[in-house]
Amino acid sequence: MVAECSQQISSKLLDDGTMNDGPNILIVDDETNIRDLLLTSLRFAGFSAHAVANGAQAISAVLEQEPDLIVLDVMLPDMTGFGVAKRLRTSGFSAPILFLTAKDDTEDKITGLTVGGDDYVTKPFSLDEIIARINVILRRTLSTDRDALLQVGDISLDQDTHEVYVGETLIELSPTEFKLLRYLLLNPNRVLSKAQILDHVWEYDFNGDAGIVESYVSYLRRKIDPHTVESPIHTKRGFGYMFKPARA
């Protein structure tokens, strides 16, 4: 992987391009070669990038730098990347996390998303792929052309504070539950297929495994339904799901 990435970096740096003051990216990886290659590549692509080598340094760097996105290796010397993400989410850090891992299995992907990850890239990776995925995530999370508050019926979702209310009741959601509800609220009274939900909430399809969508719809219902007369999330068998406003 290092050789492949080195060739990509060398070809990119022939132009000796200048770095821009773009979004702040924090790289967390204990492999020096990978860390340095990502750092150089992201800076060349216009990002303001910084790098650390372990979980403790990552947590300290987040407090100091407030990055716009973290590229986080799963296997770290002091704690797992999943553990780092969980601690950051618990402390209120809401910026996106892109996991890097040598494992390519659905269970790890689900674990990463459950603890608050936004995307998942398997080593060996292409530098162009990393940059493309970062740009996709940041276009969504740093977008300023949408109103912060989404409200459909008695359910309101604040995209700035990440607070969700059903009527006057505050509902605690995980980051993935929040993203799923947000997508449903953006498309009220419209049937959304599991493939569409995977594409917009997780941005890849788990090799066609739609079970993750069913699980998270179930999680959402358990938190929202007790505060409504009827569930606003309707199953359309053979098609997908539809969000239909319901009274609290």
Short description:
The protein is α/β, with parallel strands linked by helices and 248 residues long. It has 9 helices and 12 strands. The strands form 3 sheets. The chain has a 5-stranded parallel sheet, with helices on both faces. It has a 4-stranded antiparallel sheet with strand order 6-7-8-9, covered by helices on one side. Strands 10-12-11 form a 3-stranded antiparallel sheet.
Layout of SSEs?
Elements: H1 2-13, E1 24-28, H2 32-44, E2 48-52, H3 55-65, E3 69-73, H4 81-90, E4 97-101, H5 106-114, E5 119-122, H6 127-141, E6 149-152, E7 155-158, E8 163-166, E9 169-171, H7 175-186, E10 191-192, H8 194-202, H9 211-224, E11 233-236, E12 240-243
Parallel strand pairs: 1-2, 1-3, 3-4, 4-5
Antiparallel strand pairs: 6-7, 7-8, 8-9, 10-12, 11-12
List keywords for this structure.
about 250 residues; alpha/beta; five-stranded parallel β-sheet; four-stranded antiparallel β-sheet; 9 helices; elongated; disordered N terminus
Structure description:
It contains nine helices and twelve strands. It is of the alpha/beta class. The strands form three sheets. Strands 2-1-3-4-5 form a five-stranded parallel sheet, sandwiched between helices. The chain is elongated and about 55 Å long.
Strand content: 15-25%
- How many angstroms separate the termini? 53 Å
Radius of gyration of CA atoms, rounded to a whole number: 19 Å
In helices, the fraction of residues equals 40-55%
Provide a count of the helices.
9
The secondary structure category is: alpha/beta
The strand count comes to 12
Low-confidence stretches: 1-20
The largest beta-sheet arranges its strands as 2-1-3-4-5
* Shape annotation: elongated
Question: Mean of residue pLDDT?
Answer: 82
Major sheet size, sense and barrel closure = 5 strands, parallel
